[in-house]
Amino acid sequence: MADAICRVLRDGALEGEHATSLTINDSVDSPFGPIVFDYIFTQLSSYISSGKSQSRGVVLVAFSRSPSFIVELLKSRGIDITTTHEWLRILDCYTDPLGWKERLKERGAIKTPSTEASLIVNLCKDVRNLDDLFSLIIALGKGLVGEGKNRFSVAIDSVSEMLRHTSLSSVASLLSNIRSHAQISSVFWLHHCDLHDMKTAAAFEYMSSMVANVKPLSTATNVLRENSENLSLLEQNYKRGQFHASLKRRNGRVRIMVLPSFSLNMYTCTHHTQAHIQCSISAKKCEEFSIEQSLIKFTSLSAGKNETAQSLVPKVSFRHYRIYPFMSFFYVQHNSGYMFWQVQFNLQLSDKERSDRAKVVLPFEHQETGKSVQIYDGRRSVTEGKHVSSIEKLQKQEDPGRGEIIYFRDSDDEMPDSDEDPDDDLDI
Amino acid sequence: MATNKGRTSSFSRNFSAAPTSSIPGLKYGPNGTIFLSSGVPDLDSGGFHLGSLVMIMEDTEAPHHMLLLRNFMSQGLVHNQPILYASPSTNPRAFLGTLPTMLVSKDDRSRNTDAEQKDLRIAWQYKKYLGENKPHIEERDGKVEYCNEFDLRKPIEKHLIMGNRVECISLLDCSSLAGFRNSCSKFLSQLPRYDGNITSAGRIAIQSLCAPQCEYFDKEWDMLSFIRSLKSMVRSSNAVAFLTFPASLVSPSVSKRWQHLADTLLSVKAIPDEDKELANLLTGYQDMLGLLSVHKVARFNTQVPVILDATTYSIKLQKRRSLVLECLNQAPVDGSSGSSYGTSGSCSGSSKTGTLDF
Predict the structure, then answer these.
(1) Which residues sit opposite A22 in a β-bridge?
(2) Which residue from A141, A223, B81, B95 has the highest number of Cβ atoms inside 10 Å of its Cβ?
(3) pLDDT tens per residue across span A121-162
(4) In angstroms, rounded to a whole number, what is the distance separating the alpha carbons of residues B34 and B32?
(5) β partners of residue B243
(6) Are residues B274 and B288 in contact, defined by beta-carbon separation less than 8 angstroms?
(7) What is the fold, at CATH topology level, of the domain defined by A2-347?
């Protein structure tokens, strides 16, 4: 799933097309957006460093993490740091975004921090001027790949930080300029959608060709309504989550992919947090991969093991319509109100229905079982006492859930010992 | 707005023969209205009313509005109508290179043999507007058709987009919409509406008016007041304004107001890819690109509402080149495995599909 997204970013854009763009959305309920961003960044970096992608380099615009974090991240993924100068440039908007340290340095108050020698880092001292930022990005990219038809990718971590300093329309304008630049192959950014209003999220989705949403496995309100035993589900939100992705295809359709659960094992090392990502893919195929000691391993899961995923499958609904099976009618409703009626009479029996039907005892006195069955016919007879035990046995044989036929003979209506001949009305 | 088949009844009004328009690309309609073609034959039961504001609500996940926009603009160029085009890109003129050219089908030569049958179809279709007169619409032999089909794979002829036929404006240059309003006003002043004969008609095409990269994106009320003034300017001129906007990017109340301002309101929707349920529900799902929905149709000089046969159409590309709109058809009702009920004849229960198991 995440690999599919990485592959689309790797393949980039066709001639004359806008660059492929990805928005990664997360929220405080499932704050794994940065980890997903790192995963995608390292995947793309490995494609680029091995020459398998359309872009020859990547420019990382770092707002929320320092360049040294990036170095450690690449090291932990086994990417050779010494070659990064050939394919990576970092625009450091983290260290001194508003130029305050620069002013302090001028007064001699602080010293310049040292950076990794092999990493080429450019410092941006005014993130509010997005025109300059755009020029810097393009300059860095061209410095990487040169002029001409070579392309590079851009990664922005994160746009929520940018929105602290500038307006949405200027950020949108920057992203749109990046997308429409001829030398940019792909661009992706992280967005914490609960920090902003719906319009902002909608605007970023408008400008993306792919949207990846990181969602919690269960929301707090759902859990609290249920047993307190299910609070463990809340705990699971700290390790697992759902991963939804939608891709806009060139033909105008939208491919929606849902990963009902992915899990993270987090532990802190001395200097940094290393994240293991496990993703379980639902429905027909269960696949789990875990990153252990910077190596990715894929293992297939049998259906039984991943019950959470299986149970989540029926609840997955497509963004654009839901199906409500109601008796024998199928009613399909589109979000915007399209309604398609399909009347379908379900004449097929399910297995349970079939077995229940087989167990129903029909009101025949001769059931071909070798013994006669006394069906209660509404009349208490002398012989009933003798047969009570057999009736009780019969009743005990019934399963509680099987169907019953309650039959009252027409002769029940007749008073016993009546003088009327029941055949009087026959006209023979 | 698609062809209304079988709507003629014995109680239809006997329209007096409307004058056939001598200007290519214009057609007289009922109630003293004039139509302009949308460029999509399936959308043209008459066309767009001259003087109306047409709005398309975009789906942020699909570019189908661009298909409609391209056809609209190409139709205007074919009919030599002046066009004002505005978009939120730095170089809007580059878009003109993507406009489709007219589709020249191989059937054109053999049309004359089918003329009689065709004439019947045309007469029946447009009887509502033109009475007993056979229209000059869809004439062959080099005369201009009212509505053309366009080949989306081929770009339009360069001579049509050269010169001053198309005025391009970038919405990114407009810090507020006042400048753009002035440009529209200036464009429409060339096409005033008088009671006399029309000399020419024009088209205004605005793409993604509320795109987030525009500086005025936050000023929702400014955008609303711009649309109101555009609507009033267009109403008093011989032009049609065609505007697309991503409705989800503005706040819901403003979006509703925006929708109310439209004379004709359409929306496009993306459909999910490789969706088996939808494939079972609708025939032709494989060829569908998206869905088009008609929310409102312009009513000029009449109180009678337009009642459409269907309000939702599927957008398809016929032979991957021309845009067609089709009514949605349900797939045949079937059992569990997808074959229709009528195919299996046995009741023995040997086959799984469609058997009645008593």
Answers:
(1) A188, A210
(2) A141
(3) 888 888 888 999 999 999 999 988 888 888 999 999 889 999
(4) 7
(5) B55, B206
(6) no
(7) Rossmann fold (3.40.50)
Report DSSP state, residue B39: S
A206 contacts chain B (CB < 8 A): yes
Using left for φ > 0, alpha for ψ between -120 and 50, and beta otherwise, residue A49 falls in alpha
Distance CA A338, CA A334 (A): 5
CA nearest neighbour of B60 among B195, B240, B211: B211
Helix (H, G, I), strand (E, B) or coil at B97: helix
Q: Which residues of A131-145 are buried (b: 16+ CB within 10 A; e: fewer)?
A: eebbebbbebbbebb
Phi, psi for A146 (deg, rounded to 5): 80, -175
Task: Tell me what ipTM this predicted complex has.
Answer: 0.74
CA torsion, ordered B59, B60, B65, B69, to nearest 10 deg: 140
Of the candidates B298, B240, B27, the one whose C-alpha atom is nearest the C-alpha of residue B147 is: B27
Other beta carbons within 10 angstroms of residue B56's beta carbon come to 26
Q: Which of B172, B211, B272 comes nearest A320 by C-beta?
A: B272
Distance CA A236, CA A239 (A): 5
Nearest CB among A202, A249, A332 relative to B60 is that of A202
- Token pair of A379 as six digits: 């009349």
Under the banding of pLDDT at 50, 70 and 90, the label for residue A287 is: very low
With beta carbons under 8 A apart, name residues in chain B contacting A340: 281-282, 328, 330
Q: Do B213 and A169 touch (CB under 8 A)?
A: yes
- Helix (H, G, I), strand (E, B), or coil: what is residue A374? coil
pLDDT of residue B67 exceeding 70: yes
Check CB contact of B254 with chain A, cutoff 8 Å.
no
* Beta carbons of A251 and B289 less than 8 Å apart: yes
Which of A245, A239, A189, A193 is closest to A216 using CA atoms?
A239
Q: Is A191 helix (H, G, I), strand (E, B) or coil?
A: strand
Range in A161-175, A322-336, B179-193, B308-322 with the lowest mean pLDDT: A322-336
**Which residue of chain A comes nearest to B250, CA vs CA?**
A199
The string of DSSP codes covering A266-330 is: EEE-SSSEEEEEEEE--TT-EEEEEEETTEEEEEEE-TTTTHHHHHHGGG---SSEEEEEETTEE
d(Cα B328, Cα A340) in Å, to the nearest integer?
9
Asked whether the beta carbons of residue B293 and residue A338 sit closer than 8 angstroms, the reply is yes
| A381 pLDDT more than 80 | no
A100–B contact, CB cutoff 8 A: no
Give strand pairing partners of A262. A241, A279
Nearest to B323 by CA among B39, B27, B28, B34: B39
Q: What is the chain A residue with the closest CA to B340?
A: A344
Mean pLDDT of B168-177: 88
Residue B175: which pLDDT band, with cuts at 50, 70 and 90? Answer: confident
Closest listed residue to residue B207, CA positions, set B317, B67, B321, B76 = B67
3 state DSSP class of A245: strand
Choose between A158 and A236: higher pLDDT: A158
Q: Mind listing the pLDDT tens digit for each residue in B129-166?
A: 654 444 334 444 455 678 888 888 888 888 888 877 88
pLDDT band for A270, please (50, 70, 90 cuts): very low
Alpha carbon distances (Å) from A267 to A228, A275, B46, B83: 27, 7, 67, 62
Q: Which amino acid is at A46?
A: S
Indicate which of B87, B89, B152, B213 best probes the interface with A, i.e. most A CBs within 10 Å of its own CB. B213
Instruction: Note if the bond before B351 is cis, omega within 30 degrees.
Output: no
pLDDT tens per residue across span B271-288: 888 777 877 777 778 888
Give the one of B249, B278, B291 whose C-beta lies nearest to A206's C-beta: B249
CA B37, CA B77: separation in Å to the nearest integer? 12
